[in-house]
């Protein structure tokens, strides 16, 4: 059970993000233990959480970075990550971002189209540099996750289609300032089954064999991220099953001799160590419902409003009270500003602390200024 330091909370302004750094360290230790293999390289997808305190811990564990903007590259470098351990992804890199990444000599670009490849080549030429590139392939594979966070289907905007990859490889040979080092894949996020990853391995195996027949070989394969977490019961599964995850790739992906395998994990590393802590402003008796109105809303945690996601909600001031049903909502002027409907919670009073769990990934980093609200602060503890 996560124990929240209520005494310390009582001196803080709500809402704020609370991070259990002890859990983050245990998670990182598990990532390192289960990915121990000379061929494996784990990058942290910084889009999940870019809080500098969190980043320093992740940097200390030796992970690299998967960045999707010039801003993320710069924040990662500031947090101490070596540029050569940073990969730069995204369908819409600007010229300025490409120039910045080349200047910093990052590890490479995950390239999503022929148009982008040609722009990177011309900017690299101007700068008299060679850009290391990984071509992102869209494996046309259903990851069985929410439609907004599935990325590996042919209908998505991501990557180069399986049918076009050969012609892009051929074209890349004519581009003098590009060096294609590998292939990159990412099929979606919050994937809780093994099957989509096994299917991904099969797709990669077939693709590699057929490209090798045409004379194309790769120093590196990148399988992206996507490992899911247990939002329903974070105390039962505070650390995702990294063992099974890495084993899937060990068992199913046929790496060639000397070939590297890269991963880009975001959510699975940081989700469970973070909670959004809020205070109850009012308990409102409706005609048919009882509402708990929090001082945190979709401005602090947008996942429920945006993806219909459900995060576990706890009354941490009085966890043993009599159970009642409540709709738990935020203060923002939007009906989607709702964290849970019909939640069974121990009796809730004004000023109680409520924790919204598993909020370490895509929480603080997606906070907004809507309604001119201030961005949430953060508080850390080692347990
Ligand atoms: N690599 C690529 C190319 C990605 O697009 C993503 C996430 C990752 C790695 C990291 O995926 P993860 O291991 O975190 O699943 N805001 C949404 C999630 C968006 C994910 C975008 N891409 C949410 O709150 O569920």
Describe the secondary-structure layout.
Blueprint: H1 6-9, E1 16-20, H2 21-34, E2 40-45, H3 52-60, E3 64-67, H4 70-78, E4 86-88, H5 95-104, E5 108-111, H6 114-126, E6 131-138, E7 160-161, H7 165-173, E8 178-184, H8 195-213, E9 220-222, H9 242-252, E10 260-265, H10 267-270, E11 274-285, E12 290-294, H11 303-307, E13 313-315, E14 323-329, E15 338-346, E16 353-356, E17 377-381
Parallel strand pairs: 1-17, 2-3, 2-10, 3-4, 4-5, 5-6, 6-7, 6-8, 8-9, 9-10, 12-14
Antiparallel strand pairs: 1-11, 11-12, 11-16, 13-16, 14-15
Helix pairs in contact: 2-9, 5-6, 8-9
Residues 45, 48, 66, 89, 149, 151, 186, 189-190, 224-227, 264-268, 303, 307, 362 line the site of ligand LLP.
Keywords:
TIM Barrel, Lyase, Ornithine Decarboxylase, Chain A, domain 1, alpha/beta, 2 domains, 17 strands, binds ligand LLP, 8-stranded mixed sheet
Structure description:
This protein is an alpha/beta fold. It has two domains: 117 residues, Lyase, Ornithine Decarboxylase, Chain A, domain 1 (Beta Barrel), CATH 2.40.37; 250 residues, TIM Barrel (Alpha-Beta Barrel), CATH 3.20.20. It has eleven helices and 17 strands. The strands form two sheets. Strands 1, 11, 12, 13, 14, 15, 16 and 17 form an eight-stranded mixed β-sheet that branches. Strands 2-3-4-5-6-8-9-10 form an eight-stranded parallel β-barrel. A hairpin with an 8-residue loop joins strand 14 and strand 15. Helix 2 packs parallel to helix 9 and helix 8 runs parallel beside helix 9. It is elongated and about 70 Å long. The model has no long low-confidence stretch (mean pLDDT 95). Ligand LLP binds next to strand 10, helix 10 and helix 11.
């Amino acid at each position: 059970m996560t124990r929240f330091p209520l005494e310390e909370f009582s001196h803080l302004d709500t809402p704020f993000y609370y991070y259990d750094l002890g859990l983050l360290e245990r998670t990182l230790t598990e990532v390192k233990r289960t990915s121990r293999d000379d061929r494996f390289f784990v990058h942290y997808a910084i889009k999940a959480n870019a809080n500098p305190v969190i980043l320093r811990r992740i940097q200390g564990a030796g992970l690299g970075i998967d960045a999707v903007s010039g801003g993320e590259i710069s924040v990662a470098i500031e947090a101490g990550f070596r540029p050569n351990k940073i990969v730069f992804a995204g369908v819409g890199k600007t010229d300025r971002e490409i120039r910045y990444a080349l200047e910093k000599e990052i590890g490479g670009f995950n390239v999503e189209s022929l148009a982008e490849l040609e722009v990177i080549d011309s900017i690299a030429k101007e700068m008299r540099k060679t850009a290391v590139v990984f071509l992102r392939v869209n494996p046309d594979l259903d990851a069985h996750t929410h439609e907004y966070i599935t990325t590996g289907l042919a209908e998505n905007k991501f990557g180069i289609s399986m049918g076009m990859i050969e012609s892009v490889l051929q074209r890349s040979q004519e581009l003098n300032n590009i060096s294609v080092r590998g292939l990159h894949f990412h099929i979606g996020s919050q994937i809780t089954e093994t099957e989509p990853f096994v299917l991904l391995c099969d797709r990669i195996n077939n693709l590699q064999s057929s490209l090798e027949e045409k004379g194309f070989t790769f120093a590196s394969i990148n399988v992206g991220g996507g490992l899911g977490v247990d939002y329903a019961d974070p105390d039962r599964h505070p650390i995702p099953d990294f063992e099974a995850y890495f084993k899937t790739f060990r068992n199913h992906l046929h790496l060639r001799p000397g070939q590297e395998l890269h991963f880009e994990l975001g959510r699975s590393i940081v989700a469970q160590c973070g909670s959004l802590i809020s205070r109850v402003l009012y308990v409102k008796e409706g005609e048919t419902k009882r509402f708990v109105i929090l001082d945190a809303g979709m401005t602090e945690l947008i996942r429920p409003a945006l993806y219909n996601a459900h995060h576990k909600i706890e009354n941490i001031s009085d966890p043993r009270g009599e159970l009642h049903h409540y709709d738990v909502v935020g203060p923002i002027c939007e009906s989607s500003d709702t964290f849970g409907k019909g939640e069974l919670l121990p009796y809730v009073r004004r000023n109680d602390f409520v924790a919204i769990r598993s909020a370490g990934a895509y929480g603080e980093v997606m906070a907004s200024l809507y309604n001119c609200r201030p961005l949430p602060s953060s508080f850390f503890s080692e347990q």
